[in-house]
Each structure stands twice: as C-alpha cells, then as structure tokens.
Amino acid sequence: MRTNALIVSGVVVLTAAVSSAIAAVTYLRPQPQPTPLQIEQPAPSTPPATSEKLNPPVAASPSPVASPDPDLLSITLVDESTRSQDFAKFLDRTRQAVRDRDAKYIRSIVTPETKFSFGEHRSIDYLNPENPNSSFWTSLEKALSLGCSEASYGYSCPTVFQQFDNAIKKNPSANLDAFSAIVVVGKNVNVRSQPNTNSSAIATLTNEIVKYDTTAFQNASDTEKSTTLRLDNPNGWTPIVLSNNRRGFVSSRYAYSPIGYRVLFNKDSGEWKMQAFVTGD
User: Fold this and answer.
1) More confident residue, 234 or 190
2) How far apart are the first and last CA of the chain?
3) From CA 122, how far away is CA 115, in angstroms rounded?
4) What's this model's pTM, rounded to 2 decimal places?
5) For residue 58, how many C-alpha atoms fall within 13 Å in the half-sphere facing its CB?
6) Which of 172, 178, 207, 276 could pair with 258 as two cysteines, CB 3.0-4.6 Å apart?
7) Does 20 fall in a domain?
C-alpha cells in the first residue's frame, strides 16, 4: 500500500471503519499510466480568477438527464444528507465553518483516528488548517458542495463518488474508469477551446462523465500545471476529451475526479466526527 499523487493502482485496505466505506466502491483497473488527476497536498497558490459563469448543479433528479452526446454517460445526483435531520444540521454547520476558515471547529470534529492519507498516519496539522489559503480548505469546500451519499457507517461526500460508480456499473462496456474520468457537474457547463473565458465554447455538459485529457496536461508549461490546470483550484481549468477526440477545458469548479478528495463522517459517542479526508484509491 502506498500513496501516489499522480498514479494510483492496486487495492488499498484501510482500517475497519474506513474500509467499510471504500470497499463498497469498486472500479475497473486500467493499465498503470501517468494520470495527473490529483495532488495529495499541493502547495498553496493564488492563481488569477476567471469570469466564467457558474451554473448551479443539477441534483436530486428523478432520472438522468439525457446526454446530447450519445458517447457520453450522464449521472443522477442524489443528495442523501437530508434523510437525517441531525446530520443535515451538522453538515450545514461544517459548511459554514469551511466558508469562515474556522480551523478551531474543524479540529473539534477530527479525532486521533481520522485518516488523512492512505499511507502513513498523518494528523490534521499536515493540512495546515490555520492557513486560510491552504488548499485543504478549497478541497474540503468542493467535497461538501454537492451533498453526500448515505452508507452503513455514516455519510460520504461528495455524492459524485457513489453516483459515478452507479453509472459505470450500469454501463460496463463504457470505455471509462475512475482513474481517467472526470465528472462534470452542473447545468449547461461550457466546454471551452482554451483554458480561459475569452475562447469559444465548443460544447456544453450537464452532469456527464468525460475523459481527462492527460496529453493536454503533459504538454502544458510548469506554470500552467501548478496553477491553471488544477482540480483543486476553483478558478482553474480541467482539460477533457469529448467524443470524436474533441478536446477542451471546463471550469475546475465543476470538474470532479472519481478518486478525488472525499470526506467520510460517522458518529463517535453520539457526535458526528470526520472519519477520513482522503484522495486516491
């Protein structure tokens, strides 16, 4: 078992509590390849903001929205956090703490057993929550923004994690897997020809699964890799591949990796606690 920011392979077994959450999700295993989808703990940066119009996510739909592209898979987002009034209240409080960059509150819901990596044990100090510019905050905020999926141990956020797995199970012939896919969440999200709002929109996506454009990332400059082309940068851009090999970029605010950051919550002595905040598989 090892942690790798760029290449994730094999099966990772967590402690009993966390493994019950992760084991429920099984992915197709591709051949090992460089996939710069996530960075375990990227250095804080302040990239330039974009003016891309942000559309609200489409959640709790009774059925998937039909994709205008027959070669793409659509997902249905279902936020199950509202099934428990107790948890919904806790989640609202946690989201507010994230918006306020309230490190004291976050530390109050973390335990000595909370997992922050799949490898060596790390404490919350590793993520530097006292720094309001730490990428920990933007990653956690993104993970909590779309609601959660209910599980036997508690809840897993974001719900994209479970919905991707459901879509792949229903479409086993799809040429997609968790290591090379991107879930674009939102209504009519623009796909731009270049990573900026001044470029033309070549398509729109609504809750659809596409391929991550590894080639575009590898051909980018070091500056673009460390700032613009990052999933953890809400003002950045994610390179994707549509059908017919069409390539473009979507706002990273709407781009989720199926093996990206997710947070697990369960009850400890009657109180909701953060069980894990991890990326990878």
Assistant:
1) 190
2) 10
3) 7
4) 0.73
5) 20
6) 178
7) yes
